[in-house]
Structure formats: structure tokens, C-alpha cells
Amino acid sequence: MWIPTVAVPYTPAMDPQPDTGPSEAPHIGYRTLMTLAALVVVVAGLRASGPLLLPFLVAVFFSILSAPPVLWLERKGWPDWCAVSVVMLGVFGLLTTFAGLVGTSLRGFSAALPTYRQRLSEQTTGVMDYLQSYGVEFKSKDLLGMIEPGALMDMFGSTINGLLTALGNTSLVVLTMVFILFEAAGFPRKLAKAVENPDASLESGGRIMLEIQRYLALKTVVSIATGILVIITAMLLGVDFPVLWGALAFLFNFIPNVGSVLAAIPAVLVALIQLGPESAIYLGLSYVAINMVIGNAVEPKLMGDQLGLSPLVVFLSLVFWGWVWGPVGMLLSVPLTMVVKILFEQSDDGQWVAVLLGASPKE
User: Rounded to whole angstroms, what are the CA distances from 308 to 11, 304, 341, 362?
Assistant: First the structure.
């Protein structure tokens, strides 16, 4: 059967086109969406597992600080178990002494808290009466309800309690430290048999350990000096619970940017309630002087550029880890961010992230 044919004119579009595969745009969008979803799951998991992870992280950072004396004793010929036992006895003694001193002051502060609330309410009422005598009119009850002076003392009391409770799980922290230090003693030998290039792995891990170790050691020394100066100042002025304010200054000095301010507020408030405005002003100025000398002169000279984090990154990490894990997360914010930065530096694909996290390069 004959079928008529029709000639179709040739056009370039009729040539076979190369197969470019699926479009890249949907693939990139899908990958980005999956990355964000995984990030949300990880952050939610971190928040939910805080009670379990926080003692472990505290133990890890204490172990990093305790590793040098353990390794030093081992180089002197001490057996692993003996070196770890001696160092752990010293750490346990320091933690117990610190917890005992702060616990005694904290119990006294908690017992005096109702009195401070009452005095602060009376002082606030007196200030309002004084202002009213000069013609400043307002509703006393409305202002008191807006200020809630006693709630401020309750807030700091609960914050201190929560912080010490999180850090005070001594048995779990010490037990975890023992296992970490025993594992660290034999880890190089295990790594030598587990990987083909153990020297590179040890160099990478050693760099992380060294940077965190230096930061924590220097920060601890600076914080101890800050706490001692605050204790001496509070004792000279006659402020109640000087050991508590010194311990608070020591702990909150690990929180960048705002830690010193947060540590000063409850101490100055107690000085105002107990001794009056003049002593409160003197104590506040003392805090400013201590933190200007320690924070702006001593600490930068000791640490130099070894921290290597952008100030904006430090502040954002403070907000993020504080939101995830509360006060203890704020204390650990800088060490955790340092670990993240160093890990990105070890990855070819993530070096640009490490550059963004780091401080601005010098010209």
C-alpha cells in the first residue's frame, strides 16, 4: 500500500542534543533542604540530651586540663594507673573544696534571700516616696508590679543554683575523667595499629588538644585572679558572702563579653541592700577596674591571637550555646566553637567556614 510522504525542511533544532543529565538546581535545593533538616534534628537532640551530655563535656574539658600532668608522670616512669590516680585525687580534692566553699556561701545566700527581697522592696518604696515629694506622680502599686524587685534576687538565686547543680555532678564527672585519662594513655598505641598514617591523625588531634588546652589553662588562671580580687574587694567593703561573689566572678569570667557584667549585678545589688548606695558604687567601680585591667590588659597579653575567633562569632556562639544548654552552655561556648573551627580547618571543603569563624586577618 502506498503512503504519501511529506518533506520536512531541516532546522538545527532537529540535531540530536547532548544529554546533560538532570537539572542541577533541584539537586542543590534538595541538598540544602536536607542539610537544614539535619541541622534542626541535631540541635533538637542537643537540647534534649543536655542532662546527659553536659557532665560528659565538663569531664572532657577537665580531662584536657589534667592530661599534661598525667603524661608528665608517665614520662617519669610512673605506671598509667598510678599517674591517673594521683592526678584524679588532686582534681577531686580541688572540686570538693570549691564545691564546699561555694555551697556554704550559697546556702547562706538562699537563707538571706527573703530578707533581701523585703529590704529591696522597702528601698524601692522609699525612692518612690522621695520622687513623689518633688511632684513626680505615679501609681505605687503599678510601679512595684513593673519593677518586681524581689524577682531579680530570685532570678540570680535560681541561676546560681542551676549552674552549680550542673557543674556539681562530681561523681559522674570524676568517673568519666578516669576512663578518659586511662584511654588517653594508650590511645597513641591503639591509633598506630588502627590507621595507615597514625602520625597525621595524631598531629591533627594533638593540635586540637593543644589549642583547647592553652585556652582553658590561661582562662582558668585569669579567672582565678579575677575571683581572688573580687573576694578581697568584697571583704574590704564588708559585703556579705564574698566567697560566693568571687566564685561567681571566676565562673562567669569564662563567658565572653557579658560574663563579667552578669557576675557583678547580684553582688552590687546585695551591697546596695546591705550597705547603701555608696558601697554599691564603690563595688561596681571595683568590678569595672578589675575587668579593665584583667580583661583589657592581662588576658590579651597572655592569650595573644591564639584564640583566633571573630568577636561576632564569639557573641553568637554565646547566645546559641546558652540557648541550647543554659548557663553551662555559655561557659563552654568558646571551647566548643574553637573545636568546630579547628575541625573545619582540617577539611578541604570546610576551610572557608573556618576562615569566616576566625578573626579578621592583619594587613
Answer: 62, 9, 9, 12
